[in-house]
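@channel sequence for tomorrow's demo:
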Amino acid sequence: MSGSSTVYPIVQAGISAFRQTAAGKGVRISLKETGSTAGFRDLCSGRVEISNASRPINTNELKACAAKGIRFIEVPLAFDALSVVVHPGNSWAKAVSTQQLSLLWNRNAQGRINRWNQVNPAWPKRPIKLCGAGGDSGTFHYFNKAINGDEDNSRRDYTASEDDNVVVNCVAADPQALGYLGYGWFRSNSGRLKALAVVNPKGKPVLPSVQSVLQGQYQPLSRPLFIYVNDQALLDSAEVRSFTTFLIRNAPELVAKTNYIPFPDSTIRLVETKLYRHVLGTSFGGGLPVGLTIGDALQRSFDQHKRPEFR
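structure tokens (generated this afternoon):
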């Protein structure tokens, strides 16, 4: 397995729990934290059986999988609140708008927007240290699509990594820092980081939380998290089938344990149905939708069930 560092803690917890079961004893699972894009490269070249992703598969990746004859099942696993974080010693920033985030993070800001007061005149005239996801990260693509209108529209003069530990340490070490990362990483390091409220499309500043995501208030930085399972491996390998089923059935507990936002049990039953019905491909058409509520995302993800061949 390889892919998203956002999804990594959930799957890592799943592997630890699976090894305690009769089906998991003696099963060796390699898990690498490479970023969603690198995980899709591995999946579509046949190097891994499962990739973890913090965004849906895109059009180019679909073509790469098709060229290699690799089919897959797209499995939604949890929901995330992509969090904008600062150092706990930051006393001036409490909320930030998407317009301010775009002013700070779009490619035209490189070398120009370097101080806090350039983002908000009420903030101090101090240098700002930026920390965020690397270019192989699904978090990078989602953040820039949601904030800057294009998944590759980003400044590059910041501390960038596909490893969220790097982003955590970057922000935690500097009172002038600001960064973005997955909600689970923020919650697991809440003593070292402070989240900013993000002004949603209704003009309301909303902090990232389980409730704000479930209620559809934390927009546009809410997103689903996935695993993508190689169909042939699922058919050929009892170990892949056992682990995938275990991960889905235990997802609510594993997701909550790793500080992400679990699906309700009824949704998990739908995910299992998707696996049992062998519903192949993506529900997102190769695009990167942003601003979906949890209800919208799940409706989209399970729409394939309504097709005549799966009724």
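heads up for whoever presents: The two ends are 31 Å apart (CA to CA).
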